[in-house]
Input
Amino acid sequence: MSGNTNLEYRKYVLGFAAVLIVALYVLRLFVLQLTSDDFKLRADSNAFMKRILFPARGAISDRNGTLLVYNQPAYDILVTMREQIGVDTLDLCETLGIDRAWYERRMAEIKDRNRNPGYSPHTQQLFMSQLSTEEFSRFQEKMFRFQGFSFQKRTIRQYTTNHAAHILGDVGEVSPKDIEADDYYRAGDYIGKLGVESSYERQLRGIKGTEILLRDVHGRLKGSYHNGDYDQHPIPGKNLTLSIDIELQALGERLMQGKLGSIVAIEPSTGEILCMVSSPTYDPREMVGRQRGRKHMELSRDPMKPLLNRAIMGLYPPGSTFKTSQALTFLEEGIITPNTEYPCSHGFRFKGLKVGCHGHGSPLALVPAIATSCNGYFCWGLYHMLGNHTKYHSVQEAMTRWKDHMVAMGFGYQLGVDLPGEKRGLIPNADFYDKAYRGSWNGLTVISISIGQGEVTLTPLQIANLGATIANRGWFITPHIVKEIQDEQLDTLYTRKRYTHVASTHYETVVAGMARAVEGGTCRQAHNSDYVVCGKTGTAQNRGHDHSVFMGFAPRVNPKIAIAVYVENGGWGATFGVPFGALMMEQYLTGHLSEASEQKAQALINRPIYYGEAAR
Output
């Protein structure tokens, strides 16, 4: 009886094993035929070679049509791992000008699926990129010896100028994150890394094409498949016209040689950025090709931070340029009128608190207060606003109203410029001070913000935009660096007006004060007999030497340029800020500098500023 039971048990076991084996075979066939492309890739690679055709990247010009960035031919060396067995690696290395260690390291990188997630031994992989025509010629002569190695033609960026590096940006090899974020890219592709090359990558890059080549039984290429009927031609990237004037940009960079800071100029009526200088800078022509990685590392280690675009990333106290925004706020809120006078006894003095000021007449109305940059006047204005319990229920409500005006003028948040990395700056609000002082604070506690000190920080772009807003008497268009995109409209962000909360009549009062500052106040060096300049100095307090700041525009009627100059540790606003601003406006409005202005420019360039050991 037990024998029959064992026989019956074995029958079921064998039956189960047979079914399992059949199921495994069916599953494997399903995987091979329907879900895996391994054999398809092998078959295709035996019969065809698909070569990627890279589109020409869009060219970049300045507002006057001067070509700034273009393309020139370059070549990539590709390898198909499955086919390169038996290659004389010594000969290959000598031909390409590399050593054996580099060759082995590169082969290991290609096979590393963490660094190269799209790796397959049956498809072409990038081995070496951006060979010049001369380098490629040596390889092409011997290419028949190197089975499994091929090439693809592409372009490399070239720059006609050594200026505007922070604006133009550069192009570098994609990272794994880039590939993961956009399936357009594969290992070895290139992408805009900085500047407009990054922010307008989708417009500049174009669309890839594909060329299908036929192989014979020995793997040799026999020409196009079906005479190229199935090829896809690449679509070139779109050309960009920038808003900058490269001559104005060049002058700004020349003036800022050996100095830290920024110069930003804007066309008020359009929001187009005419120049954006960040100093120190670097030569964009050195960030090209295989040397890019080494050069980028050098720049990133430089203690003066030349890669930092101070125009949109530098956060600075705006100093007295900020007084114009305070005047507008006090006027709109009814705290003052143009005729309101405040005393200034070498500064603001009240209840034991003193904020110093230089000597001038007292008391003053608003226009002369702007012209002389009176600290006392604007301290009194803020004190009366935050302490006005008739108009506001609390200091917090008054502070919120103040903050809302600042935000409407473009402070405290990113403006939205079409460049990567813009910082927002800081405009404190009631919650900020409630936390800092546990709810016990008043106008005297925060009085320094009225003169652009204390917690307030802006970028040079925001200061220049303040000048453009005043020039327009109460509105601005978001500053932008691209003027035109080939066959495409600009984002509406860069075409629509943004209004502040202040009436245009109040702006006329501030304009009058800025005009008087140039006629006989703190901005006298900006005076020009050919057009009326409106300006405001700033001397921003700092732990070391004060920063030299200027904000202004010209002409007074129908303004063509608004500008901000910020020279770190430059001292008084009149030391560097005003003369730099005047020279930049003269260059743009007249097309050149007079002989006297050129001499003045050279003297300012030669005037040193000591920045400590880091500057050596």
User: Anything to note?
Assistant: The chain has a mean pLDDT of 90. DSSP finds 21 helices and 20 strands in the chain. The domain at 246-615 is CATH 3.40.710.10 (Beta-lactamase).
